[in-house]
Design brief:
This protein is mostly helical. It has a domain of about 70 residues. The protein is about 80% helix and about 0% strand. It contains 18 helices and no strands. Helix 10 runs antiparallel to helix 11.
Length: about 425
């Protein structure tokens, strides 16, 4: 008997709370209506409506009712409109408004999705869709604010919600939120770009594929698709890159994406012409000159390793040419200084190998050739030295630079300096 009484007590209490939730929804709706009569004078009514509906909407007794979610959507639409005015004023003064409710537009949109789901009458469906159209404007405002703040994930969510809202609105026979197809595509592009920047490739890919099929006039479509496929389908990613380059032959960003692609694949011969084209496009970009120098440098080492000495010397001369041009553009670029020093150092090391072959040849001719090679080796070490010293001044803790300087001074028999660099290496944790 006590168990039945206890059960009835719980049931009565739950039923009472359910009735209270329904009353809170109704009261929130009334407070919102009062706010709209005089938005300036009755702004407190909006916050009262928000408090009521936030408390009531999670209750199971009202959670599957159209009115509940219609009120949630309209309350948050009103909050968005209020903050939207502040955003516009801040933008006019070149400032960014610190949004108090960054998820307000998303909350409104998702609530109106539920309102439509639970609508049972045509006028309810129409009301939900019209409120959704209003939410779309706020979604764009909040999305832009998130984008400017670097929150690309939030920006994507809001821009993408506008696309979804528009699909539902137009399917319901209501006028699109976009004036034309071009604006609809632009919205998808914004959503995709934010998803790429937020490292959400799975979310970006469907939009990018749609835009590609529509031949949308933005090279980033191909860059984004390349990033999506490069980890899973190398052939497709390369095909998309080629397609993008054909559509946008003068687009530098795609050219550099292509260069990086072939660099990763080690297709050095393919890179030469592409890098020369990049230099034509950006004649003051030091990294392009250095990269081309690196390509020739690698080709040089490969030729020498294969015993193709003459080819190696040709590539060596080209590497030196582009490294020197890079230094002329920016002498404070560490990579260029280090690369040029390494080029001369490796040439000296190659000569040293040849000299070592003659170290036990004590004939007059052998001794002369040995001494000539040693003198030539010293010349290239001397050529490398100032570039490594400059590299050290730019990045004092780079171990490879310190090792090279230690070895060069040892070769020059300047052991005090060599030991000083040895001490620097030990201070950094060894060679």
């Amino acid at each position: 008997m006590k168990t039945i009484i206890a059960f009835l007590s719980v049931f009565v209490a739950a039923n009472a709370f359910s009735q209270e939730a329904a009353k809170m929804v109704k009261k929130a709706d009334s407070k919102l209506a009062s706010y709209y009569i005089d938005p300036t004078g009755n702004v407190d009514r909006l916050w009262e409506a928000k408090t009521l509906i936030d408390q009531a909407s999670p209750d199971e007794s009202v959670a599957n009712q159209f009115r509940t979610w219609s009120v949630v959507g309209r309350v948050y639409n009103a909050i968005c409109a209020l903050e939207g005015d502040s955003m516009l004023i801040a933008q006019q003064f070149g400032k960014r408004y610190p949004v108090k409710y960054p998820d307000a537009a998303i909350i409104a949109f998702e609530a109106l999705l539920k309102a439509k789901q639970f609508s049972t009458k045509s006028h309810e469906t129409k009301e939900a869709l019209n409120a959704m159209a209003e939410a779309s404007k706020s979604l764009n405002n909040y999305g832009l604010n998130a984008y400017e703040g670097g929150d690309f994930a939030s920006a994507y969510k809001q821009f993408a919600a506008v696309v979804t809202a528009d699909e539902m609105i137009t399917a319901g026979g209501i006028k699109s939120v976009f004036p034309n197809e071009e604006d609809r595509q632009k919205q998808k592009y914004l959503a995709a770009a934010c998803a790429v920047n937020a490292k959400m490739p799975d979310e970006a890919a469907p939009y990018l594929e749609e835009l590609r099929a529509a031949k949308y006039n933005e090279p980033f479509v191909y860059e984004g698709l390349y990033q999506y496929y490069v980890l899973t389908d190398s052939a497709k990613s390369e095909g998309l890159l080629n397609e993008g380059r054909e559509r946008f032959p003068n687009e530098t960003s795609l050219l550099f994406t292509e260069i990086n692609h072939f660099l990763k694949q080690g297709k050095l011969n393919v890179l030469v012409d592409k890098l020369k084209l990049a230099i034509e496009r950006e004649p003051n970009n030091v990294s392009v000159y250095t990269t081309l120098g690196n390509v020739y440098d690698n080709l040089c080492q490969s030729a020498w390793d294969a015993g193709q000495m003459e080819f190696g010397y040709e590539h060596y001369a080209n590497a030196e040419k582009y490294y020197l041009q890079a230094v002329a553009i920016n002498e404070k670029d560490f990579n260029t200084q280090y690369s040029l020093g390494a080029l001369y150092y490796n040439r000296a090391a190659l000569i040293s190998k040849e000299a070592n072959k003659l170290s036990s040849n004590y004939t007059k001719e052998g001794t002369k050739k040995y001494n000539d090679l040693k003198a030539e080796m010293a010349i290239y070490f001397d050529k490398a030295l100032p570039y490594f010293e400059k590299a050290e001044s730019l990045e004092p803790k780079d171990k490879n630079t310190l090792i090279a300087l230690k070895e060069i001074y040892a070769k020059k028999s300047e052991f005090d300096k060599s030991n000083a660099y040895k001490a620097k290496l030990e201070a950094l944790g060894g060679e």
